[in-house]
Amino acid sequence: MNKFGGDWTENKIEILVEYAKAYLTIMKVFTVKYDWKLLYFDGFAG
Predict the structure, then answer these.
(1) What is this structure's pTM?
(2) What is the DSSP letter of 32?
(3) 37 near 31, Cβ under 8 Å?
(4) What's the structural domain count of the chain?
(5) CA–CA distance, 7 with 16 (Å, rounded to integer)
(6) How far apart, in whole angstroms, are the C-alpha atoms of residue 40 and residue 37?
(7) Residue 19 contacts residue 11 (beta carbons within 8 Å)
């Protein structure tokens, strides 16, 4: 089986997930307050 990265890869993904949760929690306040639309853009896809 092919394995990508190492332990550091899993750590970085966990940090990214926690960051995204916090960021989206904050942004949700603005979407309600200013009637914003929240869009997701993956600049690193592909």
Answers:
(1) 0.61
(2) H
(3) yes
(4) 1
(5) 14
(6) 10
(7) no
Report yes or no on 30 lying in a domain: yes
**Inside any domain, residue 42:** no
2-34: burial string, b at 16+ Cβ within 10 Å, e else: eeeeeeeeeeeeeeeeeeeeeeeeeeeeeeeee
Helix (H) and strand (E) counts in the chain? 1, 0
Fill in the amino acid letter for 31.
Answer: T
Domain range for 14 is 7-34
Residues in the chain: 46
Extract the tokens encoding 27. 């942004």
Q: pLDDT digit string (tens) for 3-34?
A: 777 788 888 889 999 999 999 898 889 888 99
- The closest alpha carbon to 24, from 14, 38, 35, 44, belongs to 38
